[in-house]
Design goal:
By secondary structure, the protein is of the alpha+beta class. It has a domain of 95 residues. A hairpin with a 4-residue loop joins strand 4 and strand 5. The protein is globular and about 45 Å long.
Length: 173
């Protein structure tokens, strides 16, 4: 059963396109993380967490996050093991900008997080890559983004998610 964070009515809408089909990634960081994950992947199953080496990804670490999956049925309990410094900067006006050590449910957001929770849950339950693309709006920025979520296994079950966030200027209209 997917449990979602309690939502307040004044949050900005957030409706990214969510896909399990990873076509050409637009972001340099999301593409780098995906290539790394594919290189570690043994056949059809997601790669083992033991094969993950953070130093291999130091160039994209500022826009990466790593989450522990303690209960895949409750998105609120996903715990941030690492939150990159650039993501912390993006969240600078939030009550808790650095969510390292906190759970998804403890993260205060300026937007409705239901789509984000759905994407994280899908990556955990189906053990598949998930990409989110769309427009974002926070108190201090707006534009387009691409967020990639990748599952990693321990003892045959999804135990970690790695993710990456690339932001782009708004589309001219």
């Amino acid at each position: 059963m997917l449990l979602l964070p309690t939502l307040e009515m004044d949050l900005a809408p957030y409706q990214p396109l969510i896909s399990q089909e990873i076509e050409a990634l637009e972001g340099d960081s999301t593409a780098a993380l995906y290539r790394y994950w594919l290189a570690k992947k043994p056949g059809d199953a997601p790669p083992d967490w033991a094969d993950f080496h953070f130093l291999d990804l130091y160039r994209i670490a500022p826009v990466m996050f790593v989450m522990d999956v303690d209960d895949p049925n409750d998105v609120n309990k996903l715990r941030y093991r690492h939150m990159g410094t650039r993501i912390v900067e993006y969240r600078s006006l939030r009550l808790n900008p650095d969510l390292t050590g906190k759970t998804f449910g403890e993260g205060d957001r300026s937007y409705d997080s239901r789509a984000m929770a759905e994407a994280y849950w899908t990556a955990c339950i189906k053990a598949v890559p998930v990409v989110m693309r769309g427009d974002y709006r926070t108190e201090n920025a707006f534009g387009r983004h691409e967020r990639l979520l990748l599952p990693w296994m321990i003892d045959g079950k999804v135990a970690r998610l790695t993710g990456c966030l690339d932001r782009f200027p708004p589309d001219p209209k």
